[in-house]
Write a structure and sequence with these properties.
Blueprint lengths: L1 H11 L1 H13 L1 E3 H7 L4 H14 L2 E6 L2 E6 L1 H15 L1 H6 L1
Antiparallel strand pairs: 1-3, 2-3
Helix pairs in contact: 1-4, 2-4, 3-4
Amino acid sequence: METFHAIAKALADPQRFEILELIIAGGEICCGEVAERCTVSQPTVSHHLKTLVDAGLISLRRDGQRNLYRAEPQVLDAYLRELKARTRLDVRAEA
């Protein structure tokens, strides 16, 4: 599952994880708002957002010149189920 590894890689970066948390908390947020809340430059934020979009963890909606991002919780849920299955945590929890 290529998506599984893309999500794992996206979540492994602390800055991207923080950005994902911001988006989850904000509902829908533009790149500029994310950049204002982060300690990295806007181009770096844009790069992190692209990685999160490519992994499917967030989606992009264009509104005029603004790019609005929102979380895709079902993708994270599917990732967590797959992680449990691959590590057999779901089986151990039942034992």
